[in-house]
TrEMBL record:
This is RmlD-like substrate binding domain-containing protein. It comes from the Eukaryota. Transmembrane segments: none annotated. The lineage of its organism: Eukaryota, Viridiplantae, Streptophyta, Embryophyta, Tracheophyta. It holds the Pfam family RmlD_sub_bind. Signal peptide: none annotated. Residues 5-276 form the RmlD-like substrate binding domain. InterPro entries: NAD(P)-bd_dom_sf (IPR036291), RmlD-like-bd (IPR029903).
Amino acid sequence: MSAKKVLVVGGTGYLGQHLLQGFSEIQATTPFALAFTYNSFPPQPLLLAFPTSFAFHVDLKTGLGFDSISQQFGQPDVVVNCAALSVPRACENDPDAAISINVPSSLVNWLSSFAQSDNTLVIHISTDQVYKGVKSFYKEEDEALPVNVYGKSKVAAEQFISEKWSNFAILRSSIIFGPQTVSSVPKSLPIQWIDGVLSKGDKVEFFYDEYRCPVYVKDVVAIIRTLIDKWLSEGKKMQLLLNVGGPDRVSRVQMAEAVAQIRGYDSSLIKPVSASSPGCSN
């Protein structure tokens, strides 16, 4: 029996790299054929860490590069779409780019080209920023009312997938945290960023009135693997929408205080401010 094929779109990002790591750790008992996409160039440390994986350059705006995957890797049994323009400020500055990257039209169009296209499960990573943020502990059935371009682009992505694809799981993830990746990522990581700014000994502002439920990256990987195992073992198409968060509701101030306590930094460096304060963006 041939190994099942898993394609990680956005494999050079934070979650993407941890997914590749998670699959590599179980290759001895549950072998998968792995492939991942990259946007500009494949990081050498990643290629060395996962030498049996296929790496493909893909432009998500145009779809250029997907044909190479068809020819060299074939139709995947599972696609995990981690790719996104996820920095809210960058999305605000270029809404067109946010839509063209975050709505996976080129990916879905490519998958539709296969004769048995519904044999592929699409797991799409969305965000808790699809919600308005006026209450705590949102449920999946709550209305999506995003307040920024990033959230709006992710809602558009969810709608596109649910309308155009019949076999999917959409994960609305909160802030993802955890250890550093094999290859560095351009986007600043929340805990590493807090650690870096506090280590300099300067006072830093943190929101006391914006709350999230940070989720450990390996827990997200475990959820994705569970969904994949269910699809591959049962073969039943799914149409799932799931909120993915950690057990604790914390503010940015509380995150910073936790880092300061563990690392031995002076907690007086943490200056609580309101998220509505002029010029604040942490």
